[in-house]
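Extended Data, panel c. Modelled sequence:
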Amino acid sequence: MLAAEHAVGQPTGLKNLIIANSPADMGSWMAAAERLRGQLPEDVQDVLGRCEREMKEDSEEYETAMMAFYERHVCRVKPMPAELAESFQALKKEGTVYATMNGPSEFSVTGTLKTWDIRPEIHKIKAPTLLLNGKYDEAQDEVVEPYFRAIDKVKWYRFAESSHTPQLEEREEFVSVVAGFLLAP
């Protein structure tokens, strides 16, 4: 999101841009999240809904239910890679920035990014761009597609076995794709 915001300003020296697993707007992001949530087991959906109604998104019960979503749409590697587990622990310990910008969870976007939408500006991105997402990603195709439609020099690569973290789920493929893009003449 930040890279796209920077790139629309056409900064001098920006040679290439990689937009990885990023929404073009929060409305489509939230709609995709709700659709994916609806595919979770009924008991998980019940826990999520009840905790949200009771404003208990910080409870262990909610966190456990969210893991069902994360295991499908954030990182499908089991056990969860240490670097991602550490990120979740750091977020749990100090979540001020996430809560301020996003809100209490993937499904309760109430923060400053709630209405974020770069779609009207995407056409201003002039740097060759690599657009990435995964087949099981919370950043579903419809969430990233506006970049593909509006950027003149764009290549879209969708990782066949990944969700939101292809750098962890398909590491070798990810490195190959990114290196190929960055090293291309």
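The first strand starts at residue 17 and ends at 20. This feature is highlighted in the accompanying rendering.
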